[in-house]
Design goal:
Radius of gyration: 17 Å
Order of helices and strands: HHHHH
CATH class: Mainly Alpha
Strand content: under 5%
Shape: elongated
Structural class: mainly alpha
Largest sheet: none
CATH architecture: Up-down Bundle
Number of helices: 5
Helix content: 55-70%
Length: about 180
C-alpha cells in the first residue's frame, strides 16, 4: 500500500497535471485566435497529453484501492505579449513539472513504495522528452518572432504523427 505522503503528493500532482492541461488549452486558443493553426494544434495535443497524465495517476490510485479526489485548478494565463511568451510559459511549466515528478519519485523511494517509484519512472522519461521538445520549439519561435509563419512551417515539417507509447501507464477512462 502506498505511503500516505506519496499518496497525498500524487493527488496534488493530479491537480498540477490538470492545471497544465488548462494552460495548454488557453495557449492553443490564443494561437487559434492569432490564426496560427499549427501552433494551436500542437498545444491542443499537449493539453490532451497533460489530461492523460492526470488520468494515469487517477488510474494508479484506483488500482491501489485508494480514494481519488478530482481537484479544481486555478484559471490559466490567457493573454500573451507575443508569439514567444506562450512557449516560454510552457517550457517553464514543463521544468516545474519535471521537478515535481522527480520529487515524487524520490518520495516513493524514501518511503519504500517500490510500486510508486516504478510508476514514476515513465513520467521521468516523459519529462525529459517534454523539456527537450519545448526547448526546441522555444528556440524556433524566438527566431521566428517577427514572422510566426516560420514557426508554423517548422511544426508542419517536424511534427510527425506520434504513435502511442506502449510503455505508458493506463489512463482512467482510457486515453482519448
Amino acid at each position: 500500500m502506498a505511503d500516505q505522503r506519496f499518496r497525498d503528493a500524487l493527488q496534488a500532482q493530479i491537480a498540477y497535471e490538470f492545471g497544465a492541461h488548462q494552460q495548454y488549452v488557453a495557449i492553443a486558443v490564443h494561437y487559434d485566435a492569432e490564426t496560427l493553426p499549427r501552433l494551436a494544434a500542437h498545444f491542443h495535443r499537449q493539453a490532451l497529453e497533460e489530461r492523460n497524465h492526470a488520468m494515469m495517476m487517477v488510474q494508479y490510485l484506483l488500482d491501489a484501492g485508494l480514494e481519488v479526489t478530482i481537484p479544481g485548478v486555478e484559471a490559466p494565463q490567457t493573454a500573451f505579449a507575443d508569439v514567444v511568451e506562450p512557449v516560454a510559459l510552457a517550457l517553464d511549466q514543463e521544468r516545474r513539472v519535471t521537478s515535481q515528478i522527480n520529487a515524487l519519485a524520490g518520495l516513493a523511494r524514501e518511503t519504500g513504495d517500490y510500486a510508486g517509484e516504478q510508476f514514476m519512472q515513465w513520467f521521468i522519461k516523459e519529462q525529459v522528452e517534454e523539456v527537450a521538445s519545448m526547448s526546441a520549439l522555444l528556440r524556433v519561435v524566438e527566431r521566428a518572432r517577427q514572422n510566426p509563419l516560420l514557426a508554423e512551417e517548422y511544426l508542419a515539417r517536424e511534427t510527425a504523427a506520434e504513435a502511442a507509447d506502449p510503455t505508458a501507464p493506463a489512463a482512467a477512462g482510457g486515453a482519448l
